[in-house]
Amino acid sequence: MALKIPHLSLHRDGGPRKILVGLQGYRGFPGGFKAYRQVFPTVELSWWHRLPDERTLGRLEALAPPGFLFSALGHKHLTFRPSGEERRTLRRFLRRFRRFGEKRGAVRLLVPQGVEEGAMALWLDLLEAVLEELGPFPLFFQAPEPLRPLLKARGHLLVNEEGPLLYLLDPPGLPEGEGFAYFSSSQALAQALHS
User: Quick check: pTM over 0.85?
Assistant: First the structure.
């Protein structure tokens, strides 16, 4: 079953579609999130090690200006092998991300080496069942090359590849289109903008 890509409008003030630029995290940014939100319209939060608590999410959401979008990288406890525990982990992760409401950007899922195509196909069935229950989310997969054709055939978006919505990591420049570009550092961003 091909997954429908949820509509995510990145239009700001009726302007043209564009790539929203931000950093992979705001920690270490001079002035913390309060300063970060004045410079960037989006941030990719790392939920790799653990999910943030409700209080932290509420505080970030309250501090973010209108139109600000949060994306998330997650989660190391996802095995990409279908099971009851995997379903619970995925649901918990996506429910927590859903907490951002209108300030929700996209989710980046990092698929490790060694996941076999057959297991991934079954996992995608599980994902689609969870999304049927929770509603659509813009999801992007950062996956090993052998799994990329399967993901494309099932209608999923890939990191650093063209599509109806983009999710770029440390791109050498900013292409035309709509989506997100996250940089590992301010220096990487400056280099891309001046190339």
Answer: yes
